[in-house]
Design goal:
Layout (H helix, E strand, L loop, with lengths): L15 E2 L12 E2 L25 E5 H6 L5 H5 L5 E3 L9 E3 L2 E3 L3 E3 L2 E2 L11 E8 L3 H4 L6 E7 L8 E9 L4 E12 L2 E12 L8 E15 L2 E15 L28 E18 L2 E25 L4 E28 L2 E25 L7 E4 L6 E2 L2 E3 L5 E29 L4 E18 L4 E21 L2 E12 L19 E15 L2 E18 L2 E22 L4 E14 L16 E10 L4 E10 L2 E2 L7 E2 L2 E13 L2 E8 L10 E3 L2 E2 L6 E9 L1
Keywords: Cell outer membrane, Ion transport, Iron, Iron transport, Membrane, Receptor, Signal, TonB box, Transmembrane, Transmembrane beta strand, Transport
Protein name: TonB-dependent receptor
Family: Belongs to the TonB-dependent receptor family.
C-alpha cells in the first residue's frame, strides 16, 4: 500500500483566535484552545483538535496575514508546504495542490467558491489549506487539496473599529475598515470594507478592487445563533500572461520588461453579489446542528492577447487571444448534525450531513480574426512596446493589420444539480487509539446546451468517496496517523463546459491519497510535524501545443513534508516548511519517465519574527522553489529561485502600529509560475509596502 504524509501548518497544535482583549491591541493574540477555527465554520467541520486530524493541513490567521504584509492567496501559498502557484492566465487564483492544478477548489466558510477570480483577504479570520483528496467533506473536486477562507463574523457584546492602510513602492495603495457594533444584548452588526488601487512593475498594469461585506449575528436563544452576510465584489485589472521561453526552454530574460499583450484589450472584470445565512443550534452538550444557505451571482469577463510562439533567431513573437464571458449563479443549501456519545465504552463523534447545489452557468468565448491571416494568430517583431494596440498594428512583414473578436469558439449554457449525503465517525477505541471512518455519496446531474453546435448533452454521475484514518497517541502531545481518502472530478471539468464529443461517455476522474504522518507538540508553544504521501490522479491540464485546450493527464505523485512552527521563546516565533515531491506521467503518449508540469522537486520556506522590545519587532523570511517544467512535454523549464523577504514594525501606541514589509530583498529576477510554454510570469523586483494598522 502506498502511503502519504504531510505537514500541518501555522497554528498546527492550537488555534490562535482573537479574544476580547484584542480590542486594545490589534496584533496581540490569545490562545483559546486546540481547535482549527474560532467558529464552527472550519475545514474539518467538527470541533476536532488539530493533533487528532489524520490529514495534512495549514492555517494562517488574519494576524499572520497582516504581519507578513500578505495581500493575495498566492503569497499565502509561497509559505505553505506541498503547494505552489500557477499563473491562472493573469486573471484568477490558481493553486497546484501536490501536483494537481486547480482553479475551482476554493471555499468560503465551507461553501464552494468556484468562479475564477483573485480573492481578497480583507474579511477573513483565517485561511485553511487541506492537502489530499477531500470529497467526503467537500464533494467533487478537492482532488489535490482545498483552500477554505473563514470569514469574519459579527461579535456579540463588542464594539470596535479597526483599520488598515497600505502604500507600496509601485504606487499601489489600499484601505480597509473593520467595525463591529452590538446593536442589542442579543444582536450585533459587523462591516468589513476595502478599496485597493493596483499597480506593479509591468507596463500597462493597473486595476482596482472593491469589497463590502456587512454581517449580522442574532442570538435567537441561549442555544441558537443566526449569522447573515452579504458581500459585494467588484474587481478589475490588466491581464499579463508573461514572457516566452527561448530555444533552451527557459524564459528569455532579455524580454523581462516586454508585455506581450494589447494595452487596451487585456483586462479582467468581475462583479458579484454573495449572500450567506447560517443557523446553528445546540440541542445539548453533545449534539449540535447547522443549516447553511449560500447564494452567489457572478458576472465576469476577461479579454486577452498573449504570446503563443516565439522564434529567438528572428526575434518574432506570435500572438493569439480571445475574450471570454461567464455569468453564473450558485445556490447551495447544506446542513449537518454533530453528536458525541459512547457505546460500550467506545466514544464516537459522528457528523452526518447533506448538501444540495443548483448552478446555472452561461459562458461564451470569441476568438480574434486577423485580416492578414484569416485566423486568430499573427506575428510581430518583439519590441517594447509591441507594434500592436487597439486591435491593429504592424506585423512582422511590415504590413498594417487589424483584428476583431468575431469568431465564436464556444457558447454553452449549463444547468447543474448536485445532491450529496455524507457521514463520518471519529471513534475513540481507547485512550491512545482513534479511528476515523466515513463516506460520501454524490449525484451529479449536468445538462449543457451547446449553442454553437445547436445540441444539448446531459449525463448523470453517481460517486461514493470513502475516507479512513487511524490515529495513535502514545502520549497526549504526540500523534501518529495513517489515512486514505478519495475524490473525483466529473468529465465536465472544473468550469462545467467540457462535455462535448467522447467526454460525454467517460466516467469521472478518480483521485486517491495515502498518507502517514506524525504531529508532535514537543515544547511549550512549539510543534513539529511530518508526513509522507502518495497520490494517484487523473486531471485535465493545459495542452502543450494549445493553451486554450485541455489534455487529461494520468500521473503518480509522491513526497514528504516537514514543518516546525511556534514559539522558541516568549519573543521569537518561527515557521519553517520543507516539501519534496516526485511525479511521473504514466499513460500519456510520448517518452516515458516524464514529470508532471509545475511540480518542483524541493521547496523550502521559513518565516521568523523577533520581538526586540515592547514596541519594536522584526521579521525575516525566505522561500525557495526548485526548477520545474512548464509543460508536460518537459520542453520548457521554470528555473529555481530563492526570494528573501523582511519586515519591521513599531507600536506607536497600544492602538496604532506602523509596519514596513520588504519583498525580494536581493532583487532577484525569477519566474515563479507559468500557464503555457510561452507564458512565464515575471516576478516583482525589490519592493516595499508601508502599512498603518490600528483600532479605535
Amino acid at each position: 500500500m502506498k502511503f502519504a504524509l504531510s505537514v500541518v501548518a501555522a497554528a498546527l497544535t492550537f488555534n490562535t483566535s482573537v479574544s476580547a482583549s484584542t480590542a486594545d491591541d490589534p496584533e496581540r493574540i490569545t490562545i483559546e484552545g486546540q481547535y482549527l477555527s474560532i467558529n464552527e465554520s472550519n475545514s474539518v467541520k467538527t470541533p476536532t483538535p488539530i493533533i487528532d486530524v489524520p490529514q495534512s493541513l495549514s492555517i494562517l490567521t488574519a494576524e499572520d496575514i497582516t504581519e507578513r504584509g500578505i495581500t493575495s492567496i498566492g503569497e499565502i501559498i509561497d509559505y505553505t508546504p506541498g503547494v505552489n502557484t500557477s499563473q491562472g492566465e493573469g486573471h484568477r487564483d490558481s493553486v497546484v495542490f501536490r501536483g494537481v492544478r486547480s482553479t475551482a477548489d476554493f471555499y468560503i466558510d465551507g461553501n464552494r467558491d468556484d468562479v475564477q477570480y483573485y480573492r481578497s483577504l480583507y474579511n477573513v479570520e483565517q485561511v485553511e489549506i487541506l492537502r489530499g483528496p477531500n470529497a467526503l467533506l467537500f464533494g467533487r473536486g478537492g482532488t489535490g487539496g482545498i483552500l477554505n477562507r473563514v470569514s469574519k463574523k459579527a461579535k456579540l457584546d463588542e464594539t470596535f473599529t479597526g483599520y488598515k492602510a497600505t502604500l507600496n513602492t509601485f504606487g499601489g495603495y489600499g484601505v480597509e475598515i473593520d467595525t463591529n457594533t452590538d446593536m442589542t444584548s442579543t444582536s450585533a452588526l459587523r462591516i468589513n470594507a476595502m478599496y485597493e488601487s493596483l499597480d506593479n512593475h509591468r507596463d500597462f498594469f493597473d486595476g482596482e478592487r472593491i469589497g463590502f461585506n456587512p454581517t449580522a449575528r442574532f442570538e435567537l436563544s441561549e442555544d441558537s445563533i443566526l449569522d447573515v452576510s452579504y458581500e459585494y465584489i467588484n474587481h478589475e485589472r490588466f491581464i499579463d500572461r508573461g514572457i516566452p521561453t527561448g530555444a533552451d526552454g527557459r524564459p528569455v530574460e532579455s524580454l523581462k520588461n516586454v508585455v506581450f499583450g494589447d494595452p487596451e484589450n487585456n483586462y479582467h472584470e468581475l462583479e458579484a453579489h454573495v449572500f450567506r445565512v447560517n443557523l446553528s443550534h445546540q440541542f445539548n452538550d453533545y449534539t449540535k446542528a447547522n443549516v447553511n444557505v449560500f447564494y452567489g451571482d457572478y458576472d465576469k469577463v476577461y479579454s486577452n492577447f498573449y504570446a503563443s510562439g516565439y522564434d529567438a533567431d528572428t526575434n518574432i513573437v506570435e500572438l493569439d487571444g480571445y475574450i471570454d464571458e461567464t455569468a453564473r449563479d450558485n445556490l447551495i443549501v447544506s446542513g449537518n448534525l454533530i453528536s458525541e456519545f459512547s457505546t460500550g465504552g467506545i466514544g464516537h463523534m459522528v457528523i452526518a450531513g447533506t448538501e444540495f447545489i443548483r448552478t446555472n452557468s452561461d459562458q461564451f468565448r470569441l476568438n480574434p480574426v486577423f485580416d492578414s491571416t484569416g485566423n486568430d494568430r499573427e506575428t510581430f517583431f518583439t519590441q517594447r512596446p509591441l507594434a500592436f494596440s487597439g486591435f491593429s498594428g504592424i506585423n512582422a512583414a511590415g504590413e498594417q493589420v487589424t483584428t476583431a473578436f468575431t469568431a465564436l469558439n464556444d457558447d454553452t449554457r449549463v444547468t447543474l444539480d448536485v445532491a450529496s449525503f455524507f457521514v463520518q465517525d471519529e471513534i475513540e477505541l481507547s485512550e491512545h487509539l482513534d479511528l476515523v471512518l466515513g463516506a460520501r455519496f454524490d449525484r451529479f446531474d449536468i445538462e449543457v446546451f451547446n449553442a454553437k453546435a445547436v445540441e444539448t448533452r446531459s449525463r448523470t454521475d453517481e460517486q461514493v468517496s470513502p475516507r479512513a484514518g487511524l490515529i495513535y497517541k502514545p502520549q497526549e502531545n504526540i500523534s501518529l496517523y495513517a489515512s486514505y481518502s478519495e475524490s473525483f472530478l466529473p468529465r465536465s471539468g472544473e468550469q462545467y463546459t467540457d462535455i462535448n464529443g467522447s467526454d460525454n461517455q467517460l466516467d469521472p476522474d478518480t483521485y486517491s491519497n495515502q498518507e502517514i504522518g506524525i504531529k508532535w507538540d514537543f515544547a511549550q508553544g512549539l510543534s513539529f510535524t511530518a508526513a509522507v504521501f502518495e497520490n494517484e490522479q487523473s486531471s485535465p491540464q493545459v495542452a502543450d501545443d494549445n493553451p486554450e485546450t485541455l489534455d487529461v493527464i494520468n500521473s503518480d505523485i509522491s513526497g514528504y513534508e516537514l514543518q516546525l512552527t511556534g514559539y522558541v521563546n516568549d519573543d521569537w516565533r518561527i515557521t519553517a516548511n520543507y516539501s519534496h515531491l516526485e511525479g511521473e506521467i504514466v499513460d500519456r503518449s510520448g517518452p516515458t519517465g516524464r514529470t508532471p508540469r509545475e511540480l518542483p522537486e524541493n521547496t523550502f520556506s521559513v518565516w521568523s519574527t523577533y520581538q526586540v522590545n515592547d514596541v519594536f519587532g522584526v521579521g525575516l523570511g525566505a522561500t525557495y522553489q526548485d526548477e520545474s517544467f512548464i509543460n508536460n512535454g518537459n520542453s520548457a523549464v521554470l528555473p529555481s529561485y530563492t526570494r528573501w523577504d523582511a519586515s519591521a514594525y513599531y507600536d506607536i501606541s497600544k492602538d496604532l502600529r506602523v509596519q514596513l514589509n520588504i519583498e525580494n530583498l536581493t532583487d532577484e529576477l525569477y519566474f515563479p509560475n507559468a500557464h503555457a510554454t510561452h507564458q512565464a510570469t515575471v516576478a516583482a523586483p525589490l519592493n516595499a509596502m508601508l502599512t498603518v494598522v490600528g483600532r479605535f
